[in-house]
Amino acid sequence: MVKLPSSAAAAASSVAFNHNNFHNHRFHPRFVSSSPSLQSKSAGDIPFLPDSFSQQEDDHEKPSEVLSSVAGGIVALGKFDALHIGHRELAIQASKVGTPYLLSFVGMAEVLAFGYFHLVLMKLIMVFNRHPIVARCDRERVLSSWAPYCGNVAPKEFQVQFMSVRHLSPREFFEKLAKELGVCGVVAGENYRFGYKAAGDASELVRLCDEFGMGAYIINSVMDRHQDARNMNRYDLKERGQVSSTRVRHALAEGDMKYVSELLGRPHRLLLKIKDWENFTSSSSKQRVSAPKSSLLNLPPKDGFYENCALLFGEREPVTCRVSIDTTHIHLEMDRVDFIDDDYSQNPQVLGIEFGELGVNCV
Known about the structure:
- By secondary structure, the protein is of the alpha/beta class.
- Helices cover 25% and strands 21% of the residues.
- It is built from ten helices and 13 strands.
- A hairpin with a 5-residue loop joins strand 10 and strand 11.
């Protein structure tokens, strides 16, 4: 068991930003099934833990077969909305000692909502304001890009229904990790909290891992090196200057795409599922097309004009484009007249927009 060795902590704090050129990647979107089944039907499926745990107390060495997808692995604990460089560090540490998994909880908003009208309000907020930072069908691509950092092994995701663990004490939660999931080790950040009412902290995590025979790996937070110290606690009282999904959302809201790229360790990729193109025009030198914001699959940056973006569409090579975002639509302009033809414009498609590092110009 490792209890925050100083060398590992130092290594975890040192991050090299990775800005891959978008021209090196073709666009292959994959929609991930939301089925609660743990047995993946394809490489992109994310296994889920059922709503209720078995009441049988099996031996630690013999985890339930239905939960064997993470048995023997090292799980990183967190929320993993943005898949930012802090999350990547957790995966890197996990990969150093075993097969890396990202374990997170789903269904928290519905569970924490109280009363019918509050639940409706929560759903409306999620629909209009809480797009995920990374589209669900794009998460596998992002995790695959982490493989060079993780011993050439792409981390996998494992999601637990929050309802099944919300009332578990810290000890009960780790008992489930050890006896029912068969986890061999746990990686978490120094500020991670767990268990009912977030009663457990990093020191408790180390103690419980020792009790249940699992390795414990606590790493220092990856700090936001470009954040003005005066605004250190501006976004969330729980934040102390570390890279976080909240900071990524704030940077997107400001339209600061260079800052977003630094936090993510990659350019931000926006996906749209286009059912019907609008304002599709083509001239002798340019092609323009528009899509409603209702087609968004993840969080866009601030309304405005963005240059030096990359448009990714089907099997075609990426092409440079200009993007204009207003209150209702996203407008694209390309100096290439054959990128989207009439056949493409009439059929549902998934479109990718990878943003450059130029700041926003308000429209």
